[in-house]
Amino acid sequence: MIKFTCDGKEYELGFNRKTAEAAQRSGLDTDELATKPLVQVPLLFFWAFQMKHPNIKKSKTEEIYSHIGDKTGLIRALTVDYISTYKDLFEDAEEEDGGENFIQWSSDN
Fold first, then answer.
1. What would the 3-class secondary structure string for the chain be?
2. Distance (Å, rounded) from C-alpha 85 to C-alpha 17?
3. How many angstroms separate the Cα of 62 from the Cα of each of 57, 65, 66, 92?
4. Tens digit of pLDDT per residue, the chain (109 long)?
5. Quick count: other Cβ atoms within 10 Å of Cβ 85?
């Protein structure tokens, strides 16, 4: 979670699965941060607000971004937070509590 204060208001930026999915549906693609930064960086920054500040306008996030220091570090931290939402999609479930809710699968192929 990224935290900062701007104009006396405290902000917390980050992603959960819901906001990451919405960001992806809106066109955010972290693979394109280096090749299409004019599109992707503002999207990443805007969507990072949505978890805790869903009513903020994109124009306000753009204004805030123009005054942010260490933009490279911030984008790196937001990218890591965004990608961490993928964890439960790809990480194997743990067999816990006697395995009652643990699902094993098999394939005939």
1. CEEEEECCEEEEECCCHHHHHHHHHCCCCHHHCCCCHHHHHHHHHHHHHCCCCCCCCHHHHHHHHHCCCCHHHHHHHHHHHHHHCCHHHHCCCCCCHHHCCCCCCCCCC
2. 5
3. 9, 5, 6, 38
4. 999 999 999 999 999 999 999 999 999 999 999 999 999 999 999 999 999 999 999 999 999 999 999 999 999 999 999 999 988 788 777 766 566 777 888 899 7
5. 18
Residue 48 tokens, joined: 């990072």
CB 18 within 8 A of CB 84: no
Tell me the whole-structure pTM to 2 decimals. Answer: 0.84
57, 19 in Cβ contact below 8 A? no
> Which residues pair with residue 11 across a beta bridge?
4
